[in-house]
Amino acid sequence: MTNPLAYLEGELNDLREKGLFRWPRLLEGPQEPVARYDGREVINLSSNNYLGLANHARLKAAARRAVDELGVGSGAVRTIAGNMAIHQELEEELARFKRTEATLLYQSGFAANAGTVAALLSKEDVIISDELNHASIIDGARLSGAEKKIYPHKDVAAARRLLEESRGARRMILITDGVFSMDGDIAPLPDLVSMAEERGAIMMVDDAHASGVMGQHGRGTVDHFHLHGRVHIQVGTLSKAFAGQGGYVAGSRPLVDYLMHRARPLLFSTSHPPSVAASALAAVRLVQEEPELIERLWDNTRFFKNGLSEMGFNTGTSETPITPVMAGEERLASELSDRLFTAGVFALGIVFPTVPRGKARVRTIVTAAHTRTHLQRALDAFERVGRELKLI
């Protein structure tokens, strides 16, 4: 009998020949600044655990209480029987945090982006999107059926032209990441917001990598640029700086009410386990009570970036704790990552299709939990391996 999946082996062999076949490294213990991956203790520069909260005692205590009092699962989707008080409490806290009328939880940040875009738009509408926006925005745009118009990365003039030529559409939505996940640069949000207002477009920002990182208490790029009340849809995550799982949309009450009835990921996926919601709630409150966490994150970021720059590494256009070390060729990026791992530093190689061909890099993220000793050891390893590979 013919195996209809036989073609997969050929695809996999092609990946192997190009040096692109990689199985994820195995974490053997808690997510920490120094962690055990594949049996080796390494300085961890690959985690989105920006504030070092993934193993925080206060978050773990909140999760344990929720398990003891509420059990391990919600039992259903929100719209049937799984709408728990802890979900509502978290949404209310997030709305206060984001300074919006309401928020709505999704099971993941990916679902928040894709589900929201797909629910709000259809084939009569136009989506104007930065070329480097997250894959979840791209997939949501495809699912919506709306016309997609892509502008070059951070090209405000090009975005303006696309808005102007789309005036005949029923609705227009202008979408950007707040912080771009592979390059670590920040969207020109004030200019984009002004353009959206001038042309009556919906303004949407994916602030996954700005949540808990930018703005007062980590409220995101909208707060960073003082744009409260001018961005219609803000997407955030609970799985990075807030160290848990899930995403959310923040905006007006009508927006949230509509999405509760039309967003397919929410309608057809079981809601958060109570322990996950409880730990996220604890994280959001902790960040507001201890601003020194974010200050430490940025101090560490500046120290590490300066060290890489002084050695002569190309870190692209990064402005945030996401700092790529550009290698260019895929095999070179993978080799850099592998040699760093052997030297005691876990910094993941990022290659096509996650980034364009010729722009492969090792992507690093420092956290508030790293010490200067950790970071200096990592810099020493980068210098040694970088010279071996003639990157510096």
From TrEMBL:
Superkingdom of source: Bacteria
Keywords: Acyltransferase, Biotin biosynthesis, Pyridoxal phosphate, Transferase
Associated pathway: Cofactor biosynthesis; biotin biosynthesis
Modified residues (N6-(pyridoxal phosphate)lysine): K240
GO biological process: biotin biosynthetic process
GO molecular function: 8-amino-7-oxononanoate synthase activity; pyridoxal phosphate binding
Record's catalysed reaction(s): 6-carboxyhexanoyl-[ACP] + L-alanine + H(+) = (8S)-8-amino-7-oxononanoate + holo-[ACP] + CO2
One Pfam family named in its UniProt record: Aminotran_1_2
Enzyme Commission numbers on file: 2.3.1.47
Subunit description: Homodimer.
Role of this protein: Catalyzes the decarboxylative condensation of pimeloyl-[acyl-carrier protein] and L-alanine to produce 8-amino-7-oxononanoate (AON), [acyl-carrier protein], and carbon dioxide.
UniProt name for this protein: 8-amino-7-ketopelargonate synthase
Protein source organism: Candidatus Segetimicrobium genomatis
